[in-house]
Amino acid sequence: MAKDNETALSGDIEVGKVRRLQKRIDTNSDIIDGIVNRLVSDYCKPLDEYMTFIKSILDDTTNPPNDKELDDFTLNIPVLLYFTGEAQEALGVKEDVAKAVKQELYNEIYDKSTGTIADKTAAAELATQNEYIAHIAYQRAYKKIKLRMEAANETLQSVKKVISRRMVEYEVARVDSGRIGGQ
Fold it and tell me: Of 95, 101, 141, 172, which residue is most buried, by most CB within 10 angstroms?
């Protein structure tokens, strides 16, 4: 625990060094994001396109979705989820392989390295950075696809609720129109 007269941080923060570090982190993150987004796009393209189509219909607030469009949504979203789920599992296999490749190289380098356990660990971690990044990219892509599938499923559930509400409204309107002119 720091004494009252000591600061928690070292005396001088090198702002330039921190900014360079941030730039390096941002640059590397952008590279990894690009890899992840390419993977997600490859596996989610039909689902993404259909969800964009639905959004364009919903954005037109002067013309709410008609019954035919809602039926289309309820029929197409599950089919797209089926194929996206299959693709997600294929991506999961690649993630597992990437992890195994990383671990295999790590073990190889660790065994060939000399020095203390810490020296061997450092050498193995340094030598497997690219494999680690590839594994992380597949892992993140898998999670992003899962989130998109969950969002599409939520959309499907919402569409079903709208259809149910409309069915009740149509039924009420049908019953009420039969009462016109008589009690």
Answer: 141
Q: Residues in the chain with pLDDT < 70? A: 1-11, 176-183
Tell me the domain boundaries of the chain.
Answer: 17-172
The number of residues in the chain equals 183
Tokens in use for 134?
A: 């590839």
**Which pLDDT score, from 0 to 100, does residue 7 have?**
58
Q: Is there a contact between 71 and 82 (Cβ–Cβ < 8 Å)?
A: no
Q: Count CB neighbours of 163 within 10 A.
A: 16
d(CA 65, CA 146): 27
Predicted pLDDT at 173: 81
Question: Is the CB of residue 74 less than 8 Å from the CB of residue 162?
Answer: no
The radius of gyration of the chain's CA atoms, rounded to the nearest angstrom, is 27
CA-CA-CA-CA torsion sign (123, 126, 128, 132) = positive
Residue 161, SS3 per DSSP: helix
Q: Tell me how far apart the alpha carbons of residues 94 and 52 are, in angstroms, rounded to a whole number.
A: 27
pLDDT in tens, 117-157: 999 999 999 999 999 999 999 999 999 999 999 999 999 99
